[in-house]
Specification:
Elements (H helix, E strand, L loop, with lengths): L8 H5 L16 E7 L5 E7 L1 H4 L4 E5 L23 E2 L5 E7 L2 H9 L2 E6 L6 H6 L3 E10 L2 H6 L3 E9 L11 E6 L5 E5 L4 H12 L6 E5 L13 H15 L3 E4 L2 H7 L6 E9 L5 E11 L7 H10 L9 E9 L14 H19 L3 H8 L21 H11 L2 H17 L5 E13 L8 E8 L5 E5 L8 H12 L7 E3 L2 E2 L14 H27 L8 H4 L35 E4 L2 E4 L6 E3 H10 L5 E7 L17 E13 L6 E11 L6 H19 L6 E2 L2 E2 L18 E6 L24 H11 L18 H8 L1 H4 L6
Bound molecules: ligand MTE, hypoxanthine and dioxothiomolybdenum(VI) ion.
Ligand MTE binds next to helix 15 and helix 18.
């Protein structure tokens, strides 16, 4: 395990990292602007581009008809690249303006005349349900006899929860540059989590074979799921202009346009009936999830599936039925966002736990511990029939309870709140401890594959590429560390090259937190193939006097060549590796600190570099390509049963909040986190992911609220959309990783870190409720708020009467 900084840290902080828009301009390059609909739903009666075409600097205007195929979509192809006859959301692209610079493009855009016939739009989940405006069918995952168990439950609760969306707020907006190349080829530089998807959308849209479209992603300035699917049409816009006008074309969305045009985290509305006994054991849950998919399918059905698969979170619920339906509305198509559907499923069950505890007058932590998955009594199987292996949840809960000093602080907070109820100038305080269990794998089985290319150059330095894309999470640092350590080299010996579809094809998005798991394993398999050959060569070289080595003799051909076998490897990146180091050894040859040693000749050694030189002169291949797939996945989408995940990343957070009773402002004053990340490759990077995800999640559950007017996003800038800043970081913030050496299925025993810690933000949301529980209206009824619990939402819950005149009937 290392603690090296991010491989781009030094170029990031000195401003020398190259992002797409940092690429130098070509003298003939054009800038592309996008005209989009201001209406949520309308018929397009006429588009007049005559005046705009004559505007100074405008070189071309393109409409839907200019695409070879004007259609795209990751799961269902249901979305036009450019709307032609109707628009279905405010922000939907209609026309591309290619001009000499952003100003001439904007001037030309203003002269395009679109005549709309505005139609009634579906602008809420409720409206969509009543109009049966749905995307795809309803899904169900069920175990046990829910009706019977509910009927016989000693206690029952019925409630609902409104969960709002959130913007990804990546710092780099969507961007692409397309270069026309020889013989009709196009090269696109994109900020995308999914270069292969961009390649497919560009080639389909432009009527080219994939062989003629290369998509390159060096890095993103953040993606967070927002660039899993929605970067693709942006790439296609630049590519269309490049193809039509035969010049480089650059599109760079402004923050405002990016926020208006692109989809967000899916809003959800959930309804549930829960049955439980007097101890607090949950015996039955019947949950109905509805999500707002926006105008087009995008990834929403898959997001819903993950929500359904996470409606249990850390708890064994013997009789559980969850149904899911994606609604079609007239908002931007909602999409992947860190956690995918997971945070929505977990928000529901954590709220349920809180309500059960409140009803029984118990501490919610007691209910959590009671219902937690355990290896005892068969309470370790999920509602989709996957066994929860390597279950750290009970340990996480009890360790964190102790380390956060939960019991003593609970008492202090109770005493404090008793005073605050009398003295309004004191804030209300709340405390909550929530766990997370997050399944690692794409729930769509075929996506769980990756490939890697590893090249050793003759000077002993390496280059590697995989299908993984770097968005700040450190996937390149981790993969280069895996490769380097396998060969006993420093990480600096390995350069990760830009992700490019001409080197790694048919790749999956870097998503589902599986970037390192999949691509790192492929890279290990590739490097081990070379290592096997090098090890066999080294074994033989140690028996040959150095004067006869090929570096001295190959030019003359005086010695016979050393031949080595092309050994076979299975799909298992841990096979043949000593578990504790994760490093494999062949022929008793060890690679360490740039040197190569033999068990047979402990007194001898050679440098890695000289071994590589020998390999070259003996005509032994120094490059390798490997493919890897997660083993053992059996989830069947039709039955809703099977092993959906390779393993579960787990964790727990304990958050304390303080609420100002006059402004409703909630501050997180302390957070303690323990995260089970198996055996990290790079602890520093992982801690960065944990803290970053937690704080990003805090934004979603507290201050980040999207305001729309007639379906048009009004809060499309940081002035009106409040993400957490450095001041919002909990003043006391203790984060540590659990020591877990047992995650056998994954490469080197690591666990994915990207998304799971985001779900720990729900401890903040439940702590806010906890702070309010002592107020008289909530003594009997648990506080009812939407997620996020904004200042306004908190005040509204405390003083519904004051808000009556603003609340819509
Ligand atoms: N970290 C940074 N700095 N920037 C990002 O955009 N995206 C998150 C997470 N961490 C993101 C990030 C999301 S949504 C995912 S799925 C994972 O990184 C993807 O990368 P990984 O699979 O390599 O962890
Ligand atoms: N997670 C993230 N992205 C995805 C998934 C998933 O499970 N499935 C398809 N894209
Ligand atoms: Mo992450 S939401 O899976 O890109």
């Amino acid at each position: 395990m290392s603690n090296l900084p991010h491989d781009s840290a030094h170029t990031h902080v000195t401003g020398r990292s190259e992002f797409v828009d940092d690429r130098a301009y070509h003298s003939n390059e054009l800038f592309v602007d996008v005209l989009y609909s201001p209406h949520a739903k309308a018929k397009i009666k006429k588009i007049n581009i005559d005046k705009a075409l004559k505007s100074p600097g405008v070189k071309g205007i393109f409409l839907g008809k200019d695409f070879h195929h004007n259609i795209w979509g990751t799961i269902f192809q249901d979305q036009p690249l450019l709307a032609e006859t109707e628009v279905n959301f405010a922000g939907e692209a209609i026309a591309l303006i290619a001009a000499t610079n952003p100003d001439t493009a904007a001037a030309g855009k203003a002269l395009i005349e679109v005549t709309y016939e505005v139609k009634p739009a579906v602008l809420s989940v409720q409206d969509a349900i009543s109009q049966e405006s749905f995307i795809a069918g309803s899904r169900k995952i069920e175990r046990g006899e829910v009706e019977k168990a509910l009927a016989s439950a000693p206690n029952k609760l019925e409630n609902s929860l409104v969960i709002r969306g959130a913007d990804h707020f990546y710092l780099e907006s969507n961007v692409a540059i397309a270069y026309p190349k020889e013989d009709g080829q196009i090269e696109v530089h994109s900020s995308s989590q999914h270069p292969t998807e961009c390649q497919h959308v560009v080639s389909h849209g432009l009527g080219l074979g994939s062989k003629d479209v290369t998509v390159i992603v060096k890095r993103m300035g953040g993606g967070f799921g927002g660039k899993e699917s929605q970067a693709a049409p942006i790439a296609a816009y630049a590519a269309l202009v490049a193809q039509k006008l035969n010049v480089p074309a650059r599109i760079v969305l402004t923050k405002d346009d990016d926020m208006v045009m692109t989809g967000k985290r899916n809003p959800f509305e959930v309804f549930y009936n829960v049955g439980f006994d007097d101890n607090g054991y949950i015996t039955a849950l019947d949950a109905k999830l509805y999500s707002d998919g926006g105008a087009y399918a995008d990834l929403s059905t898959s997001i819903m599936e993950r929500a359904m698969l996470h409606s249990d979170n850390a708890y064994f619920i013997p009789h559980l039925r969850v149904t899911g339906q994606v609604c079609r509305t007239n908002y931007h198509p909602h999409t992947a966002f860190r956690g995918f559907g997971g945070p929505k499923g977990v928000a529901m069950i954590e709220k349920i736990i809180e309500e059960v505890a409140h009803y029984l007058g118990k501490d919610p932590l007691e209910i959590r511990k009671l219902n937690c998955y355990t290896d005892e009594g068969g309470r370790n199987v999920t509602h989709y029939d996957q066994v929860v292996e390597n279950n750290c949840l009970p340990r996480l809960l009890s360790d964190l309870e102790k380390e956060s000093n939960y019991v003593a602080r609970r008492k202090e907070i109770e005493a404090h709140n008793a005073k605050a109820l009398v003295d309004r100038s004191l804030p209300l305080k709340g405390l909550s401890l929530t766990p997370v269990k997050f399944g690692i794998s794409f729930t769509t089985r075929f996506l769980n594959q990756a490939n890697a290319l590893v090249i050793i150059h003759r000077d002993g330095t390496l280059q590697a590429t995989t299908g993984a894309t770097e968005m700040g999470q450190g996937v390149n640092a981790r993969i280069s560390e895996l490769i380097a350590s396998e060969l006993g080299l420093q990480r600096s010996a390995v350069r990760m090259m830009p992700t490019s579809t001409d080197k790694n094809a048919n790749t999956s998005p870097t998503a589902a937190s599986s970037g390192t798991d999949l691509n790192g394993a492929a890279a290990i398999l590739a490097v081990r193939r070379i290592k096997m050959r090098l090890s066999e060569l080294a074994l033989k070289l140690f028996d040959i006097p150095e004067s006869q080595w090929a570096r001295h003799t190959a030019g003359l051909g005086t010695q016979e060549e050393v031949e080595v076998k092309n050994a076979h490897l299975t799909n298992d990146p841990n096979e043949g590796a000593e578990w504790n180091s994760g490093i494999a050894e062949y022929h008793g040859i060890t690679f360490k600190e740039g040197q190569v040693f033999s068990a047979k000749h402990p007194e001898k050694r050679m440098t890695f570099h000289s071994l590589v030189v020998e390999a070259y002169h003996n005509r032994i291949a120094l490059s390798e390509y490997a493919h890897y797939k997660f083993p053992g996945l059996s989830f069947n989408k039709l039955t809703g049963k099977g092993t959906a995940f390779l393993y579960f990343t787990q964790g727990a957070a304990c958050s304390e909040v303080s609420i100002d009773r006059d402004t409703g402002e909630a501050k997180v004053t302390r957070a303690d986190i323990i995260m089970d990340l198996g055996r990290p490759i790079n602890e520093g990077l992982d801690l960065g992911q944990v803290t970053g995800a937690f704080i990003q999640g805090m934004g979603w559950v507290t201050t980040e609220k999207l305001f729309y007017k007639n379906g048009f996003l009004l809060s499309h800038a940081p002035s009106t959309y409040k993400i957490p800043n450095i001041q919002d970081t909990p003043r006391i913030f203790n984060v540590r990783l659990l020591n877990n050496n047992e995650n056998k299925p994954n490469v080197r025993g690591t666990k994915a870190a990207g998304e799971p810690p985001l779900l720990l933000c729900l401890s903040v949301w439940t702590a806010i409720h906890d702070a309010m529980k002592g107020l008289s209206p909530f003594k009997l009824k648990y506080p009812h708020m939407e997620l996020p619990a904004t200042n306004e939402e908190i005040l509204k819950a405390m003083h519904p009467e004051l808000f009556k005149k603003w609340t819509k009937k």
